[in-house]
Design a protein that fits this description.
- By secondary structure, the chain is mainly β.
- It contains no helices and eleven strands.
- The strands form two sheets. Strands 2, 4, 5, 6, 9, 10 and 11 form a seven-stranded mixed sheet that branches. Strands 1-3-8-7 form a four-stranded antiparallel sheet, with no helix packed on it.
- Strand 5 and strand 6 form a beta hairpin.
- The radius of gyration is 14 Å and the shape is globular.
Length: 126
Amino acid sequence: QVQLVESGGGLVQAGGSLRLSCAASGRTFTPYRMGWFRQAPGKEREFVAATTWSGDSITYLDSVKGRFTISRDSAKNALYLQMNGLKPEDTAVYYCAAEKDPSFGSSRRRDSYDYWGQGTQVTVSS
């Protein structure tokens, strides 16, 4: 079984930065793709960013382009999300997700992913 554990969330003022981390543990695991989603109160979970593990394909939600950067460290089996220029509308619980084998589904779809973390809260004050 694969476990994903997020960390790095917190409270930050608008314009500030946070770096989220996602550590994968469990059986030896090399995912095809990993991504970040977020869910604000009363809203559906939405796609934020995704990368193939090879790094040859990276996608972002339009509203975070130029502010957020997704990256991964193969040696550490870790995924990161650097968030700069945070806005109050970025407030949400952020989830890490992993797709174990290519499903040919969109990186933006929740059902493309097989494993999910428990989430980390990001709160941006105005």
